[in-house]
Amino acid sequence: MLRKLIPLALLAPLIACSANTTGTTGATTNSGGAAAPGKGSPSVGFIFVGPKDDYGYNQAAYQGSQAVAAAFPNLKVLTAENVPEDDNAARVMNSMIAKGAKIIFATSYGHLDAAMKVAAEHPDVAVVQQGNLITGAVPANAGTFFGTVYEPVYLAGIAAGKATKSGKLGYVYAFPITQTIDNIDAFERGAQSVNPTVKTYAVSTSSWCDPAKQAEAAANLLKQGVDVITQHQDCTATVIKATEAAGKYTVGYHADASSIAPKGWLTGSQWNWGPLYVDIVKTALGGGFTGSKYNANFRVGYKTGENPFVQSPYGPMVDEATKSAIDQAREGLKTGSPFAGPVKDQDGKVRIPDGTVPDYTAIEKIDYFVDGVVGTLPKS
Amino acid sequence: MSDLVVDVLTGAVRGGTAIMFAALGETVSERAGVVNLGTEGSMLVGALAGYAVAAETGSPWAGVAAGAVAGGLLALVHAVMVVWRRADQFATGLTVMFLGLGLTSLFGAAYVGRAAPGFDPVKLPILGDLPVVGEVLFQHDPVTYVSFAAAPLLWWWLRSTRGGLLLRTAGERADVLHVHGYRPGLIRGAAVVAGGALAGIGGAQLATAYAHAWFEGMTAGRGFIAVALVIFAAWRPLWVMAGSYLFGAALALAPALQARGESLNQFALDALPFLITLAILAILGRRTLRAAPEELRRVFT
Q1: Contact in structure between A343 and A352 (CB atoms under 8 Å)
Q2: Bond preceding residue A342 cis, omega within 30 of 0
Q3: Which band of pLDDT confidence, cut at 50, 70 and 90, is reported for residue B76?
């Protein structure tokens, strides 16, 4: 709550001071909505839920926005950090639109509602949201996009499954949203593919970044004999340092943090948003947003192109056999899936039958832990 | 099962230490007659200063010292406002808390994700090998060992020294001090600053010994927990110590159960520390105020 209030106070001047260069946009009208969303926009706006230098999710998104700035030197790139996931987000987006932005990136999962509201009010503005799913009909000027994050997490699970001696892996996560559930399941399935009896212990912190809770989670996992820990948190240093200090292995998330885990770093998954952001902006600027692949719930993975989520470099402890097992699995993902059937849930019930390869949309609807994950999801 | 108890108790000490420093600081402040809701802010500036100075100097002890200075300086703002300007204690405290939050998110950005040397757990010889007690109490970071002495020391100081007597008198009957030629405002101001310094040490412990990281808002309400704790511990340092560990235990229970795969709703577990507080406050009811320092009761009622 407190974290939500104070950034607002800091935000107001940030927005205000980027107002000077686009003074001629007053003539803009959106009568009839005839204009193609985003076409010829003089600027593009990005909102982030956290600080641009969190060494995690928000930093990666910010770097993507800077890639857009580099690719389109004439385009003004507006950015706003610490934008809460409520109506304030709509206000920030509207103020960017008032400054001429006709392309808006809402980069946090919880920004979707506000983004849809803004899209409905401004038919001439292309609004894309990162990571969530629009349910029902997708408006002509909106869309969501994401990588298949669980695919590199599956590959990292292979490294974890090979490295563990205790057969216990740990997963520190924030909230049981589908993206996280997919990651935890994919991690366990990757590990299982090379180590059938391995278990993944999932511990939640109920916060995207509460380092003290992370420390407690890591301490308890280590005490239970877990010897590889990974996480889905916005700030990642605490868990990695605790794991390294205990002489155990780390699988990273969001960024290459091998520098703080020189001994125990295995591999991880990290973001590379630049190419995808640039392509979305290019599509919208050219007037071709409506009807394009981005005017939908767009997902890209090994099967369909360049995943914006890539595997991190290997640490020194990863042997050649593991690397080649991962290379092989990566090839397999071009036609298969981490969730190729049979997939059983924790109760042993078959959820995806043998021979079925679920598509990306189906995977984002998985709301159960797979067999081998130790932990409980809150009942909905 | 007994293994779970040991883990929760160990976690109680691990997670309760930062809260204890802050709550002892609040005790000092309130025993002198000033409520400081800015404690959360003092913890935050202490956490950032502690982490930043440890990163710059390479010494986590220098970090703890910096945490104390930073926490004390922020509390000085509160002291000036409420002691000399007679501003409302609650409104000022909250404003000071927001000031700490704003300052740290502004100046803290450079230290997010930065590496810094911190305190590692040190197993004490002999004591650390004792069954159960060794693990629960004597395998922690050095700042935690300092905290074991802090509460008894404060208790003794308040009870048995001239300084303690003056401080308590400032909180009970400030006019008596006047009669004897002391300046209660000065004593109160000093108590608020000392309290902020203790909260700053708590924040520094959180950043350099527990989480080994700085992140904006990382105290996540622990400073407010500390304020509530002082009330239901009836302003007594040793009860504050016990209460801090009770909170630590409530915070440690969720991860200890989850790491064992126990099926409990995470959101229910997260509400536990606050449910405990409410329960205790409800049980004590008005009895809590009876123990309040006289001058403080005037603030509350």
Answers
A1: yes
A2: yes
A3: very high
Radius of gyration of chain B (CA): 19
Q: What is the C-alpha separation between A169 and A165, in angstroms, rounded?
A: 10
A/B interface, count of CB pairs below 8 Å:
138
* A16-148+272-300: CATH number: 3.40.50.2300
Inter-chain residue contact B251 with A219, CB threshold 8 Å: no
Residue ranges making up the domain that contains B172: 2-299
State the nearest Cα–Cα gap between B34 and chain A, in angstroms. Answer: 23
Question: Which residues on chain B are in Cβ contact (under 8 Å) with A226?
Answer: 259
| CATH hierarchy code of domain A150-271+308-374 | 3.40.50.2300
Distance between start and end Cα atoms, chain A:
23
Within 8 A of A11 by CB-CB distance, chain B residues are: none
> Which chain A positions have a beta carbon within 8 Å of B101's beta carbon?
2-3, 6
Mapped onto helix, strand or coil, the DSSP state of residue A202 is strand
What CATH number has the domain bearing residue B113? 1.10.3470
> Which regions of A205-302 does DSSP assign to beta strands (E)?
228-232, 249-254, 265-271, 297-300
> Can you give the residue ranges of every domain in chain A?
16-148+272-300, 150-271+308-374
Q: What does the pLDDT average to over A17-41?
A: 53
Does the predicted TM-score (pTM) go above 0.90?
Answer: no
Q: Got the DSSP string for A90-114?
A: HHHHHHHHHTTEEEEEE-SGGGHHH
Nearest CB partner across the interface for B261, out of A53, A201, A210: A201
Rounded to whole angstroms, how far apart are CA atoms B125 and B301?
50
Structural domains in chain B (count):
1
Nearest CB among A6, A215, A237 relative to B102 is that of: A6
Cβ of B211 within 8 Å of Cβ of A212? The answer is: yes
DSSP A345: B
pLDDT tens, B264-277?
777 887 788 788 88
Angle at alpha carbon of residue A285, lines to A282 and A288, rounded to 5°? 85
* Identical fold between A16-148+272-300 and A150-271+308-374: yes
Residues 29-48 of B with CB under 8 A from A: 40
* Closest CA relative to residue A52, chosen from A69, A71, A70, A65: A65
